[in-house]
Prior knowledge:
Elements: H1 9-12, H2 24-30, E1 44-49, E2 70-73, E3 76-83, E4 95-101, E5 104-110, H3 115-125, E6 145-149, H4 156-172, E7 177-181, E8 192-196, E9 200-203, H5 207-214, E10 227-230, H6 237-246, E11 259-263, E12 266-271, E13 274-288, E14 300-314
Amino acid sequence: MTDAATLPPEVAVLLPGADEAVACAEFTRDIGLAPQGTALDVAMIVLVEAPQPWPKPVFEHELLRGLVNTFETPVGTARILATPPMVADHDTITVTCFWRTEAGTQGIVLEPADAAELHECIADLHHRSPTTSRLRSDEAAPDRAVIVCTQGSHDACCGAEGTRLASVLELTRPDLALYRVSHTGGHRFAPSVLTLPDGRMWAHPTADDMVAIVDRLLPPAEVAEQCRGWWGASAGAAQAAEVAVFETQPWVWDERTRRVTVDGDRVTVESDGEAWVVEVSVDRLVPTIACRADGGLPAKVAPEMSARIVDHLLL
Length: 315
C-alpha cells in the first residue's frame, strides 16, 4: 500500500478527491476497470456451513479456527469459503465440495457431526477425493450453483451489493442453488459471483445479468466483459486470454477441456485440436482504493489487462 505522493502520476490522477470517501465497487465502475484476470485460480471450492456473524478474517470463527483458506489436494488447490447454514438447528455441519475434472465439474455433500469431525474432514481432503469420505451424505450436490460474496465484515461493498443481489435471486429464482459466502477476493468488483459448473467469476452483475448467464440467454460475446476469469487458468494473463477466446465461442466452450500456457506476453489457449494465440498487455495501471476512506487512501497499484487473439491454429 502507498499514499498519493508515492503513486505513479497516471495512477494518482485517478484517485477520488481528498475529501471523498468512495465505495471501492462504485469507484471501479466509475473508472471503467476491466475485470479480466482477477478470478480465483483453484481446482476445488469447499463450502463450509458456519453460523453468522463472521469475523474478519472468517477463519477466526470458532468453527473454522485452525483451518487455512487454501490448501493442496490431489486435484489441485482448494479454497474454503464459509456459508450460512441452510437449515436451522441441523444436527450436522454441511460441507459442499465442487471440483474440476477432465470430464467437467463434480460435486458432493459431506456431513461432519461437529467441529472436530469437520477438521478431520478437511484434513482428509488434503490426501484423498471427497468421494471416498465416510461422511458422504445421501444428499446430492446441485448441478448448478451461484456463489455470491456477502461478507460485510470484510468489505462493505460485498456486504451491501452482494447481499442485495443474493436476496433478489432468492426471491426471483428459488430454483437456483444460491450460496452466500465469505470473502472470495476482489470486493472492488462487488457483487462478486462465482458460477458453477462453468467455474467463472463475474464482476458487478445485476440479477438480470445472472439470469442471462446461468440460463445462457445471451451469447458469451455479450457477457464476457463482466467475466473476471475461469478458475482453470492462472490469475492474470492466462485468465485474460481465456476470456478473450470465450468471447468468440458458443456456451459449449465451457464444456470443453482447455489448457492455457503463458510465454511472456503471448498466451496459448488449446482445446479439442485447436489453439488460439492471444497477446495480453497492460492497458493501464490503476489504484485499488481503500473502501470508503478519504481520498481512497492508502491505495495499491494494480494492472488492467487487455487481450487480443492474434492467431488461430488447427493442431
